[in-house]
Amino acid sequence: MASFSSRGPNVVVPGLLKPDITGPGVSILAGWSGTGPTGLDIDTRKIDWNVISGTSMSCPHLSGIATFILARRPEWSPAAIRSAIMTTAYTTTKGTQSPLLDSANDKAASVFDYGNGHVDPVAALNPGLIYDISPDDYLDFLCAVNSTSAFTNGITRSNFTCASNQTYSVYDLNYPSFSALYDSSTNGSYTATFKRTVTNVGGAGTYKVDISLTDPALVKVAVTPETLTFSEAGEKQSFVVSATLGSSPGADAKSQGRLVWNLSGLALRQCIELGYHRNVKRFHLRTNLLRLELRKRAFWCAYQMDCAASVNLGLPLTLPIQEVDAELPLDIDDSAISETEVQGSPRTSPTGPPTTVSHALHQFDIRCIWARIYAVFYSNVSIENSDKEKHQRRVQTFRRELDDWMARTPPEPRRAAVPLTVFSNMEDYKLTYYETILFLYRGQLTDKKDQEDDVFLECAQAAASICQGCKRLYIGKPINYTWSTLHLLFLAGLTYMHCLWTSSAVRRSVRVDNVSTIFTTCTMLLAIMAERWEAAAPYRNLFEALSARTMAMVVDRNQVDRPVFQPSSLDSNEPNMEDMTNWASQIADDNMPDAFGSLLSGIMGDFGTEEEASGFYDSLWNF
What is the maximum span of the chain, computed from C-alpha positions, in angstroms? Predict the structure, then answer.
């Protein structure tokens, strides 16, 4: 950061972060007047170009970049262009993790120095989401800063007046940055709330929020909802950011951070555009060994994340597996790869010691199995060409592949301290194994025509193992829960209940105390998640209500088939259908996948009336 650059904060409106962006302004080769210092014709000290520094150099760079974006995106408003420039800026030295430095003091620069960061014109062409602002939004902003009628009318050239019965907030201007000002006398109880709306300018996909703070103890930030799903370009979604003062601050205390909406599909699409999903031999691409390995790793990391997210959310895969022929990375330590050669031989035996990439390769393998399962059983083509015998053969083939994958699991690496992630944890591999079993048989669980006891027994066992595995993996450990953990646990619990309601063979095979243990474990884990994450509360409430009714059914039948248990004998204090429908609607707002809907509707149909079950199912999808 140049020492002469204008700095923040915004003293006029502290709730609006300034500056916005930083552009190139130091030692710029620029056109010169061609006139000598004296201006006389006899003065030969004339040049047409000069190296200049100043904000007058940065301004034309940013103006030119805005014009460049407008030429490529003519439908974007000026506010949309500014948003694209701001949200794609970088705050570290290009290509490294070193922070931008302030040349005035040689210390790390802050948001009051560079705003959102240094402009990246190429990235600005594809921001994914933009914060657009309409003229009416600016009128509300003028009202929020208590502008006089004369001032407002002078700007708008109209007789606009602020509504006396409406509350305006500077925090609600749809700006692509956030700035909260706290009074130093505030006793840790103030919360600043920002309302924002983003417009999707990319393809369909689901974004998940990621927040990083320099001092999370000073300010706690929450975003609702934490995921945004878009089905097409131009679609808008809103979210709310709450920034709460966590402790009594000093006079000059400040905390900064970044709020990023991550889309794994965007990374995958960029890999596709670069041809990373294709085998380099097909194109006779000339590149060194190091770049080739980086190319393969970039693609497979993006693909496995996209595949996992798509399957969990019930979305189609961004790239069908049949379109992929890229080679997997070499199973060899990073230190053995140079730009020109590989020193030593890659790992080929599952019994050999794992390398630095062995566990990543194992994750890539299981996502490839998921992608093929999706293509065979859940795509439109597979549904239209279903054949029972062929279906069973394919299921058996995938089951053998899955068992073989589990048998090839690399040994868990030794760690000097308690692990902070589930990656390469043997317990997590087991969860993935059981989750894949549920994914493989899910269609058969909800198919009322051809229901096989063996499938229900296996899925019930897999679901129970997931509940117990989550308990071993997370209880008493410093590993944080994630959205995918909530999804897996809730899906396993629903599957276990569905098997109990649907299959008499499952009911005969289980003991009442074991069923109670599974339900208690799931409820306890969901309750802990709900304490730390408000969005998990409806999952906990709904599961607790459903498991109570299922437990009553199991006890009532006593593992013997009797007429279906009627809810009339339930305690009047238990949640009714309206409560459960409300909780299901809240879950739907957090992007419930298809698997939840089919299992929930089946369970509700088991112990509710047909009309109630139909209304419950409809509520799942009215969002």
Answer: 112
Report yes or no on whether pTM surpasses 0.90: no
CB 200 within 8 A of CB 233: yes
Q: Give the residue from 466, 457, 429, 304 showing the smallest Cα distance to 369.
A: 304
Which residue type sits at 548? A
Query: Could you check whether the bond before residue 19 is cis, i.e. omega within 30 degrees of 0?
Result: yes
Q: CA 295, CA 528: separation in Å to the nearest integer?
A: 40
DSSP 234: T
Beta-carbon neighbour count of residue 472 at 10 Å? 12
Confidence of residue 373 (pLDDT cuts 50, 70, 90): very high
Torsion of CA 159, 162, 163, 164, to 10 degrees: -120
- Classify residue 163 as exposed, middle or buried by CB count within 10 Å of its CB (0-12, 13-18, 19+): exposed
For residue 9, is the peptide bond before it cis, meaning its omega torsion is within 30 degrees of 0? yes
Measured CA to CA, the distance from residue 93 to residue 102 in angstroms comes to: 12
Tell me the average pLDDT across 89-108: 79
Joined together, the tokens standing for residue 531 give 């304490």
Instruction: Match 């496995």 to its residue by tokens.
Output: 304
Give the residue among 544, 466, 551 at the shortest CA–CA distance from 516.
551
Separation between Cα atoms, residue 358 and residue 371, nearest integer Å: 20
Residue 588 φ then ψ, to 5°:
-60, -35
pLDDT in tens, 195-217: 999 999 987 778 888 888 888 77
Rounded Cα distance between 206 and 484, Å, is: 13
Question: Which candidate, 526, 316, 312, places its Cα nearest to that of 436?
Answer: 312
Residue pLDDT, tens place only, 327-352: 999 999 988 888 778 888 888 888 88
Query: Which residue segments constitute the domains of the chain, with CATH numbers given?
Result: 1-125 (3.40.50.200)
What is the average per-residue pLDDT within 297-309? 92
